[in-house]
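Quick one from the shared queue. A colleague (R.T.) flagged Alpha/beta fold hydrolase as missing a structural entry in our internal table.

Convert sequence to structure tokens.
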Amino acid sequence: MADFLLIHGSCHGAWCWRDTIREITALGHTARAIDLPGRADDARPVCDMTLALSAEAIVAALGREPVHLVGHSAGGFPISAAAELAPERIARLYYLCAYAPRDGVSMIDMRREQASQPLLSAVRKSPDGLRYAADPAQSIPLFYHDVAPETARWATDLLCAEPIKPQATPIALGPAYASVPRCYIQCTDDRTIPPEYQTRMAATFAPKDRYHMPTSHSPFLSDPRGLAALLTQIAEAN
């Protein structure tokens, strides 16, 4: 039995994994999700939010046995930083249409490498410049275009502002991170991280560790059963 820890991306929270957790559990495995620091109910100052703090929150949530650690979108950075801190406690890293980092590069640096920038018109930066939010009017076309309308509206209502500092911080990765097995799941109908950029990131993974889903940026809501089946297939085969 595999134990999955699911890490959300920008402007999301543990809530987004609701349906996927149910489907993974139905397949006989365990799954749980956490909120990263900086969600709406986090009373700490936004200036205190860091990539290191997110990594530490993930490590604190790891179990006694090695966990299968899934990061969606921006969640690719904190799961990688967590692997650098506690590689022996992670069975595998799963990058779900996620930014797969390189040492010394920030997530914002990687976003700027993309040939197209779908999010630029949808991002609303706070007056203090410390966080950003997604324009609700553009959230469904960008994130949830293949999600059932009622579920897409539910998700849009739960989106929150995202601290910028963790995403502007270059990550430090070394032998500890490199020792952890990893795989990449591309979403080929993604309108947030361009599929061609996902292909570029996935090219750094071994061919046997590259997978595809024909979904939007949010397979955890558009195809939770298919996502659960793929995650458990990978876990059971390795």
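The mean pLDDT is 96.
DSSP finds eleven helices and nine strands in the chain.
Added to the table.
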